[in-house]
Design brief:
single chain; mainly alpha; 17 helices; globular
Length: 351
């Protein structure tokens, strides 16, 4: 009896230790002293002055103020990034003009953007500041953009990353019920546009920086397992950088889809194993588990499954790996490209 009691006590202490480790890993760190303060510059407001003021002097002011972003933006909306002469003014004027039916698409969009984002976007600037400070806390050598610009792109780009800037396309963050989105379903079906909301701005900015600037995907191993673990690591960094953002927002699920994953996590894992998918590198076969879609074809009943099951499962594997390896830092995790090792040491066996 004494031996059994001791075993129970040791197991209890061990269990408490694991819980404390998990709690400490998820504890919000104090980043208030990190000298980063993001200001979102309203390029859309300055660009609109080209409509109401003489175009050439206004264009000169924009080029001086916004640098390469101005050139990139002109290339986006006109198809030509040549701003060395004024020939592109004709194309810019077409953006401002009424259409052939006498409608005002530019002014209609401007009115909608200004109704959702009337001022200087202090709330989003504060959120992005906190995210950038956390990125800098965990990755001190990270080079973050010096400028964050807000613009609208004619529904062409939700976010953009350029030379020392990050751009936010406000016309693709107008809210799920925006009057513009039903006419864009061929490009942005509802399962995508339902996430075009203001509370998605900071997660998409953070994810863009993490994925594109800091940790772009390596092309060496295209197996599903490798891509699951890569995406799982990206999501785990987002856990640390966005501690107050719900999991559903980070991955882009509805609450119902997130609950479905949690309910059927053992079945999802069994499916990957039974179908021999982990080491499959066939793009057409494995892409359905990684890309945006309303559900995952062939999984679940009545199309109720969540999409991106490979990303969600990779996320859970990485979380469990980090819980079981408390000495591994975030920087060490991101430098480790051995997906098999991470899977093995996670001991991922959902029940």
């Amino acid at each position: 009896m004494m031996l059994n009691t001791c075993k129970k006590q040791i197991y209890l202490i061990f269990s408490i230790g694991i819980l404390l480790t998990a709690c400490s890993r998820n504890k919000k760190v104090d980043v208030s002293n990190i000298p980063i303060d993001v200001h979102i510059e309203r390029f859309d407001h300055d660009f609109d002055l080209m409509r109401t003021k003489p175009m050439e002097p206004q264009a000169d002011l924009l080029q001086k103020k916004y640098g390469i972003f101005y050139k990139d933006f002109i290339g986006l909306i006109t198809g030509s990034s040549n701003t060395n002469d004024t020939n592109y003014f004709k194309l810019v004027k077409q953006v401002f003009n009424n259409d052939q039916n006498g409608r005002h698409p530019y002014l209609d969009l401007k009115h909608e953007v200004d109704s959702v984002y009337p001022g200087n976007m202090d709330k989003q600037a504060e959120e992005i500041t906190d995210a950038f400070r956390r990125i800098k806390y965990y990755f001190p050598q990270a080079k973050l953009p010096s400028h964050v610009f807000a613009y609208f792109s004619g529904f062409q780009a939700q976010t953009s990353i350029g030379n020392d800037y990050f751009g936010i396309g406000l016309d693709l963050f107008l809210g799920a019920n925006s009057k513009f989105y039903p006419s864009l379903t061929e490009v942005f079906p509802h399962y995508m546009s339902r996430r075009f909301t203001p509370d998605n701005i900071t997660p998409r900015v953070a994810e863009g920086i993490i994925r594109e600037n800091l940790f772009p995907e390596i092309d060496n191993d295209k197996s599903l397992l490798s891509r699951m673990i890569y995406n799982g690591k990206i999501m785990y960094v987002m856990d640390q950088v966005l501690p107050d953002v719900p999991d559903s927002t980070k991955i882009g699920y509805t609450d119902k889809q997130l609950k479905w994953c949690e309910t059927f996590k053992a079945d999802i894992w069994a499916y990957f194993l039974e179908e021999n998918l982990l080491y499959n590198s066939d793009y057409e076969k494995i892409e359905r588990y990684l890309t945006e879609s309303p559900f995952t074809p062939g999984v679940g009943e009545k199309n109720e499954s969540a999409p991106k099951l490979g990303i969600w499962t990779g996320w859970q594997i990485v979380r469990q790996y980090m819980d079981k390896n408390p000495k591994v830092t975030l920087m060490q995790l991101m430098a480790d490209n051995d997906a098999q090792k991470i899977l093995n040491q996670s001991k991922y066996r959902p029940k």
